[in-house]
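Reader question, answered in our methods column.
A reader sent in the components of a multi-part assembly and asked whether the whole thing could be modeled at once rather than chain by chain. We filled in our standard form and ran it. Here is what they sent:
COMPLEX SIZE: two components
ENTRIES:
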Amino acid sequence: MQLKGGKLQVLAEEQVKDIHAASLDVLEHTGVIVPERRCLEKLAEAGANVDFEKEHVLFPPWVVEEAIAKAPAHFTWHGRDPRQDVFMGDNIVNFGPASSVLSVSDIDGNKRLATVNDCEKFTRLADQSENIKEGYCVVHPSDIPDQVHHAYMVFSMFRNSTKPFRGRAFGPNEALDSIKIAEIVSGGEENMKKRPNLIVNCCPVSPLAHGKQILEGFYEYVTRRLPVIWTPEVQAGATGPVTIAGSIVQMNAEILSGLVMAQAITPSTPVVYGTVSSILDMKRGVIAYAAPEASLINLVAAQMARFYKIPSRGTGGFCDGNTLDMQAGFESAMTLLMTAMAGVNYIIGTAGAMSSTMVCSYEKFMIDDQVAGMVARLLRGVEVNPLTMATELIAKVGPKGHYMGEKHTRENLLKEHYIPLVVDRMKYDTWAASGSKEIKHLAKEKVEKILAEYQPEPLPAEVEKEIVAYIKLIEKREGVSSSLDKFENLSL
Amino acid sequence: MQEKLEQVTEAVLSMDVDDVKNAVTEALDAGIKPLDLIQDGLTPAVNKVGALFEKGECFLPELIGTAEAMKTGMTIVQPLLVAANQEQKKLGKIVIGTVCDDVHDIGKNIVAAMLSTHGFEVIDLGINVADDEFIKTVEKEQPDILGLSALLTTTMAHQQGVIEKLEALNLRSKVKVIIGGAAVTPEWTAKIGADDYAADVIEAVEKCKNLTSA
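And here is the structure of the entire assembly that came back:
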C-alpha cells in the first residue's frame, strides 16, 4: 500500500516563492563551477553564460525556468520484480536504507570494517522488510580492492533483492560498469530503456561547485535518460550560511544548476530534488545529521520539490550518537517521522546507521525498520467510513459488552493495528522474569532468525554467470585479483 | 606599556581586523618588542578564547575569527622578528593538503587555521594535491608532520599511496603522517601505517601537538 505524506508544511507559499527568487538571483549573479567540458558545452547551448576557462557558469532566470518545466513530475523506479516497482512523485513516501557506511558494530560496541558478506546480508534484510522499498546494501565493503567496490556492491544488491536501488557514479567507469550490470539484469539495452532499473544519486561540492568525477558519472546516466537525484550536503555555518534559509537558498541553487544540466543533456530526464544538508556542529566541527535543523531542511525540500513539480529525496532515520541508546532512539525516530510527514518521496537513511552514518548495526536496522512501520501507520491515518465507525456493531455489543470475540475485530485487526516487530509491551514483572531484555537484545534475536531463514529470489543462473564474467573483465582491466569468492554460494 | 599590550589583546578578542592592525602598530610605535607583543599581546587572546571554548561558552566561529585576527597581527610582526634575527619558537612544521581527486577542504582549512594559531608553521598545499607534490614538498620543506585529508571513500586510497611512496624513497621515517576526513577510521589508519588520525578539528590540534612533542 502506498503511503502519502505532505500534510506537514513549514513554509507559507510566499516564502517558497521567496526562496525560489533568491536562488535565481544566486544562479544569475554568483553562478556555479562546472569542471566538465561536455556539461559546459551543453549549458552554453541551453543559454547559460559560460566562462570555459574559469569553468564558471551564470544562469539567466529564463534558462532555469525553461529547464524546470521540462523535468518530469514523476517516474517509476523498476525492481527486478515488477511488484516491487517504486513510484516517485505525488507525495508518496518510500523508505530506503542507510548507505555508504564503513563499519559494523555489534550490540556490545565491538566495531569492525564492513565486508562483502555484510553487503549481501543487509540487502537481504531490506528485501524481506515490509516497510523498506529499496534494496541498498547499507555498507561500503572494505575487504576488496577499491577499484571494484562499485561493481561488487551493485552485484550484491541485484542478487539479494528484487527491489530497485541506486547505481554508482564516481567517475565514468563506476557509472558505465553499474549501468552495464543493470543492463545484463534487464535483458539488454532496449529492455532497460523500457523499464529503467537504476537511478543515481549525485552530490555537488557546496558551496556552488560540482566535482569533475561526479559529473563524468552523471553524464553517463543522463545520456541514457536514467533518473538522477541531486543531493547537496550543505553544512550551515561552514559550507553554507549559518541561517537555515540561507543554506536552503544555496542548496536550492545547486540543485537547480544540476537540473538545468540534466535537461540540457537529455530533455525530460527525471531529476529528483535531494537533500542531506544540515548544520555543522560548532563544538566538534562535524556535520550533525540528526539535528532538528536537518528535519526543517527536509520539510522545506519537500515543499520546494512540489513547487517545481519534481520528486524529492531526503534523509530520515539518521543518528549522530554512537551506541544503541536513547539518543539513537530519539534521533532516528524524530528525523524519520519529520521527513515522512513532509511527504518526501524517497527517504535514505531509514534503517541501520548511527555515528553520523559511519557505523551501522544489524540490530539497529531491525529497530529502525520497526520505527518505519510505526511511521507508515501514522501516514495511513484514520480510515473513516460506516465499517470503521461501526455504529451497528456498537449497538449490537451495547453498554457493558466487549468486542474481543467479534468477527469485526478479527477481520479488521491487521488493517487497523500496527503489529510491532520488536517492541516490548510486557508488564514490568513479566519483563524482569524473562531476562530484563533491552530492545537491542530483542532485535538481535529477531535479526539472527531472519538472516538464518530468509532467502531472496535469486538471479537467473545465466544472468548471474554473465555478470560474473563482466566483473572478471573489470578486475582484469583494473589489474586486481578477484575476490568473487567472498560472495555466498556463488558458482564461479 | 601594559596598556598597549592589553589593547592588542582586546583587539584580537573583538575579531576586528582593522582594530588589530591599529593596536599592533601603536604597540610597536610605543617600543614594545615584537616577541613580547606576540607572547603577551596576541597569544593571551587566543588562550582566553580557547578556555571559553572548552567551557562551551563560545564555538568554532569564534575560534576561527580569533585565528584570523591573530594572523593579521602576525603578518605585521613576523617580518620584524626576522629582521631582528629572532625567531618565535614554533611547535612544529606541518605540510597539509587534500589528496588527489578530492576537492573538499573546509575541515582541512579549519585545521590549518587552528594549527597556525597554536604555534605551528603550516604549509597548505590546497586541494586535489597529487601524491608526487606531497612527496616533493616533504623533501624540500622537511616538515615534522604531513597531514593528508580525504573526505570520500573513493579518494582515501591516496592516503595509502602517499605513505607507500614515502617508504619507497626512504622518507617515511623522517616525517609523522596524520590523516583525516569523515571516512577515516582507526582501522584504516593502522592498515596504511599512518602515525595517527584525527576525527575532528579539536582532535587534529591535540594529536599534532602530541606528534611533535613525542
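What stands out: Chain B has two domains: 2-83, 92-213. The CA atoms of residues 110 and 201 of chain B lie 7 Å apart.
Send us your own complexes using the same form.
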